[in-house]
Amino acid sequence: MSKTTLRWGIIGPGGIAKTFSAALQKSATSTLIAIGSRNPGKASLAENFAGVQVVHGYEALLSRADIDVIYIATPHLNHVEWAVKTLQAGKHVLVEKPIALTAAGARRIYDEARRLNLFAGEAFMYRPHPLTQRLVELVRDGAIGAPRIIRATIGFNAREILPGHRLFDKSLAGGAILDLGGYPASIIRLIAGASEGKPFLDPEEVSGVAHIGETGVDLWASGIVRFAGGILGEMSISMLADQDNALQVFGSAGRIKLVNFWSASGKEGGVGRIELTVGDHISIHEVREDRWLYTFEIDALADAIAAGRLEFDTPGMGWADSLGNMSVLDKWRQSVGLSYFEAEQAEQQAF
Questions:
Q1: For residues 237 and 257, what is the distance between their CA atoms, to the nearest angstrom?
Q2: What separation in angstroms does the CA of 61 have from each of 11, 67, 135?
Q3: Do residues 275 and 172 make contact, with C-beta atoms less than 8 angstroms apart?
């Protein structure tokens, strides 16, 4: 683990930023210096980020000499713009998923990071967790034989459509595929890769269906991916329906089930359980962790920077992995006829 303390700033003080800032306080590698807000006088900031300095405007945060890394937690629409500006300000950047609206937008970030020799990463908090590593090991070592079908679901019930909310607003690039789809896509690609001893695999085919609501975004959707070796991946996501929120891997000799795969052993630590069934025998593989969930990606980033790497090490989301995942989301949205037009075009332009 890195011995140098990284100094962080956060752009976009929303709900995920609150969760991330709490994890920063639990990290042995990092500390939170300040948060950039366009409305620093908002009453909830003092409550949600107690003791943390709030500065007026994102540019003011980027101009600080006492910050090494920026976490981008704005709505999806602004990720590429502020990630690129962060890199151009000479700072490393971690962008909340999805890193961009499109694979082209993600490539814009990574190209800039490469040019400036700075770290850039997409935040999939479950990826660096030991439970994920154990899952990869089981598949790679043939615990269930050859994987045939990988099924991943994630869904919640918002109860109603909230016009103007980022999840339901098309002008803010809302919708289930962009907000939730990256989770099943990334875990399926990870497992498919593990079956061949690789960090990930990209599918040969992607197709999907979705229900488009009155605000023009997908409210629930399903997707299918097919890999060259014959593995099929099934993805199901929803914003107006609870799901079992589980990963299931069906192989030639057995099956694996992991509930709430994206939260591993829990946001504040705990025990994660992988259920392995071979024939009539069921075994439980437990991974106990005291570290908070989001702390793992924070520390993985610090380790990468200390080692001189510009991207996450596997099973974290490296650049090629991230681009492949965004490509799946691009094709999934294209399959259901969902495009953000001007937003996508603006994302691909230089700033």
A1: 17
A2: 8, 8, 39
A3: no
- Give every residue of the chain whose pLDDT is below 50, as ranges: none
DSSP letter string, 189-258: HHHHHHTTTSS----SEEEEEEEE-TTSSEEEEEEEEE-TTS-EEEEEEESBS----EEEEEESS-EEEE
Joined tokens for residue 13:
């003080």
Protein fold of 130-294: Dihydrodipicolinate Reductase; domain 2 (3.30.360)
pLDDT of res. 346? 64
Which residues are bridge partners to 278 per DSSP? 281
pLDDT reported for residue 284 = 97
Spatial neighbors of 115 by CB under 8 A, at least 6 apart, are: none
Tokens standing for 107? 């490539």
CA 341, CA 1: separation in Å to the nearest integer? Answer: 43
Tokens 């099934």 -> residue: 234
Whole-structure pTM over 0.90, yes or no? yes
Tokens of 21: 């800032």
Q: What is the pLDDT of residue 73?
A: 96
Would you state the pLDDT for residue 166? 92
